[in-house]
């Protein structure tokens, strides 16, 4: 008891820790960390895939039972103990120090590939200052013509101009993960720029990132609002929204829909990373952390839904344009078919005399479904949405380069806000455990090491490697980390003691029955169920990846599966090691 009280006095009396300039700066930092690329390119895809508007039901239920309670808990414990993730869990119990280290490792792994995505956005941003946009048409084969017309490169003609630009001009992707190829110099330069921007924004700690966050957290909302008013005026926008939000209630019986909702809430709020704890540790102890948690979680959720509306107005426009192209192409096919049988167009007489012959040969004409709904059926997420589907839509929009510049500038800012929070989840614990190196040196060293390792993603097979990181580096480890965090606060630190801390910070009667039920029982059960279902999902099926061009999914080679296992365990292994 004496140790506990003395420790508490030290925490309360800590005067040397830097803090936020003001409350707005802190809220914007938490919003910038929580609202990231997943809100723009992951949530719309999940909504479309899992029953449209019906998906919002499990989404809001999981937000209430899992997302907000855990987010509030991380903010409160960070603010009360005024330490980063390692310091917080060491303070609660020395056996739990590995939870903080596991968070740091996950943050490092996530930062490695996340900044590569920002580098891709930089590459497209720089290429957007051209008219026409460089992905608006297929390149032609030099010195080859047919009937005085240039011949398009076969690879581009077989796919699309936007797909070719992404896979060949940007990534120069190899045919499989076993063919690494050499680094693509364009991507190397873009990655250097991305890490340089991150260093400039981070090198003074929250004093520099706090200033940058004013722009990086607010600019995406300005762009989304502009895109919204432009999007709803485009032909096909209403069709996109109708397709997006038409509820398919039967999908709610599928457990995978609930798992997707829980996973999206979990990763969207940045739970388990340590960034939320790090940011809140710079707060004044009397700050209203409950209000902050509800505010940021609500804004994050609202942003996901609003971004979905914006995305599907633009995708509806793209589908409308493709539908018109399909109809024109079908008319030409039908015209050519009848011309083949009767060139002088006297169709009425010819049809009456040769009905059976026409019906027999009509089967050979491949008539495709040209409805807007059929064009919208193909669900796209991640890079496929941003760098292929969205870029195709911008080709056909008036002033396409302007909209392209705005869109990729928005993606860059969304990514940077999340990057600052992710790296803070590494830097703050390092400083708290007594690493006596200037913060500028820590940030510089971290950026240089990350850049050197991140060059792996610039290889021709880098996209396949990045997909492994995106799928496995955070999913299972973060679930386990958050599970241990909840158990640590609710059962090791103790709900009654944590309740007293909240009373001290907020006044009043402390947390009520809802927070007790979620922290002690419901949230841990949700995470444990999610963890087990994810393990089963991985175990029943060999991990696969999609090969470029053929679009066929093939099994990962043995070395890649071994790498996946190492990626998962290199973070969570610290929990038992330290214990």
Automatic annotation (TrEMBL):
GO terms for cellular component: plasma membrane. One of its GO terms (biological process) is amino acid transport. One of its GO terms (molecular function) is symporter activity. Keywords: Membrane, Metal-binding, Sodium, Symport, Transmembrane, Transmembrane helix, Transport. Na(+) binds at residues 32, 34-35, 39, 268, 300, 414, 418. It comes from the Eukaryota. SUPFAM superfamilies: SNF-like. It is found in: Membrane. The chain crosses the membrane at residues 26-44, 56-75, 95-126, 184-206, 218-245, 265-282, 294-315, 402-421, 442-466, 472-493, 513-536, 556-578. It is a multi-pass membrane protein. InterPro entries: Na/ntran_symport (IPR000175), SNS_sf (IPR037272). Its main location: membrane. NCBIfam families: Na_transp. Belongs to the sodium:neurotransmitter symporter (SNF) (TC 2.A.22) family. This is Transporter. It comes from Ciona savignyi (Pacific transparent sea squirt).
